[in-house]
Amino acid sequence: MRKITNINSGWDFIKDGVAEKVDLPHTWNAVDGQGGADEYYRGRCVYERTIPYFDGRVYLEFCGANTVCEVFVNGIYIGSHENGYSMFRFEITDFIKADEENTLRVIVDNTANEFLYPEMADFTFYGGIYRDVNIISEVAQSHFALLDMSLCGMYITPKADGRVFVKSLIEGSCMGLTKEFVITDAEGNEVAKREVEADKDAVKLFIEEPVLWDATANPYLYTMTARLKKDGEIIDEISDRFGVREFYFDSVKGFFLNGKNVKMKGVSRHQDRWQMGNALTLKEHAEDIELIKEVGANSIRLAHYQHDEKFYDLCDEAGFLVWAEIPVISNFSKKKQAQAKFMLEELIRQNYNHPSIYCWSVANEIGINGAASGLAAGIKELNDIAHALDSTRPTVTAQVTMTSINSKLNEIPDILGYNHYYGWYMQTVEGIDKWLDKFREAKPHLKLSLSEYGAEGMTNLHSANPVQGDYTEEYQAYYHEHYIKAINERDWLWGSYVWNMFDFGSAIRNEGGVKGRNNKGLVTFDRKIKKDAFFVYKAYWSDEKFVHIAGERFVDRPTGEQKIKVYSNCDKVTLTVNGEKTELEGDKIFEFDAVIKEGENVITAKSGKCTHKITVNGTDIPNPDYVLPDGCESFVRNWFSSSDEINPDNLSLNDNLGDILFNSEVQRLAKNHAKITIDKDMPILKPIAKIPLKPISKLATKLGAGEAISMANQFLQTIEKDK
Q: How many structural domains compose the chain?
């Protein structure tokens, strides 16, 4: 019978010739990959340790090593793996010796590679063996597959009527062997059983009156145990959990689970954490799950790669509906297509049995740098592979905001997502309403979700009058107040995903006064502070009664009359400011008129047994720590670089100079952020208004300014033309 031994402890880690002792999980970019250096280290590092001799057939199992991993046992090359986010195994039976210490050497390399995804994206590509490493030993000569990319060599397909189909693969001879399959319920009671010849790949069992896996309402799990027998004796055994459920998408009403209409109330999640990078343990994964439960979400987009098996398990148990994806992101390349197909196959084979997963995403924002050669054909190929590997789940892609509504890319997947940041990178928050209605009118047959949206919010930056681009916690909350209403007003929009549940590492960023971080999280990178925006969603999504006064960290406030916001899922809230009580009935967002006096002010919100109290200091002297310091980026328009696909409804370098200068949105931006007023009647502007920019941009490109021209065009493509 197989035995699993964890070997996370006692490794020698060598970087640039310097060795240190480490335990796994480990990444060498926990600090520099989060702004701790001008550049984070991307290169080759070595992990070494000794391992004892094991009986039977022996396998090494790596649950995650980024990006390229080469394995040696006793100096002999065993194999390599080129996917930084999946589990992989090598058999080492013939390379370990019984009479001496065995040396395991692992070389991991996170250097940028033109043949591998991801190459360019808004997150840090942490290097290291950042998940568990195990040795699977005492494996029989014939056994359930360990080398077919799957988790356990068994693929379970349940149907809502109780039928359960299971496919399994045997490595080794099946001669004289049988396979026994047993299903037990959540209480451990046997509910189905069948034994067949070992060479029979597909088997059907039946559960009478099955309990459905019903997302967060009732995430009920069954266990399938498979036993390989010889002369009635068990020689190998595996097990995995599964859930019985059925679902479908409708272009009018959205998502249906077990016959009930369910709106996907989602958050996105990256796998890293402050000062830990991606080297997380079960403790951190479980803490993330509890925070997502608290906000009231029922769905998680696991961006932008395969996550730890532990996290998928936790999602099964909690009932979260999971969007799973591969890191085919930003820049499409034919050179990377072979690896993309490999990553997709690993994702699906290893996670097929998880009831939480409802779709396979084959690409994210793949059009950022335009319509690269072979883009549509490459995405369609991945889409077809996903269908071939799993006919039970739909495919999805997340399109970048500038992808035309009429793009042929939108017709490839079964369901669709768009990433939009109206009110942060472009235009105002009202832009999302206009775009959604425009999309619906143009493409009513497509099944759309809002796969990303968000705004940066710094817990140390505050304003009584927040504005777009100021990075304040108050503007972030205002932004999400608008978006959640827009989402809820459109039943046909099957779901949405806040970007992001948690702040995360992004070494390419330097904004908001912080290097190496994307600050769009509802919760801080260290998971210690829930921002005000967190409570906006808790008010709309959670059944747990609460009240929360916005601006708890906005301690030094101007004196006089001002608005105090309270987020709550209660019907009625009483606010007390310095002893003066006001009661309001409302829906999620309660806005009170109050007077802040000079000095200490005690503010209390109460509804039933729910109470929240804060203390603020009234002062007419602005706190300089609440605004971005000099020299910091104060407004990030759009970090996307270029796009060759022009949306004719938006501005571009194909327009005349006057069309751009006199556009109402351009004028607003110029006034608010550059402090420039553009007057159509200015004498200097009239003669140049009709100048076409296309010939000028072509000339500039020939003279070596192509990148700047592309960025300028991308900027303009985020601005809608005046009607």
A: 5
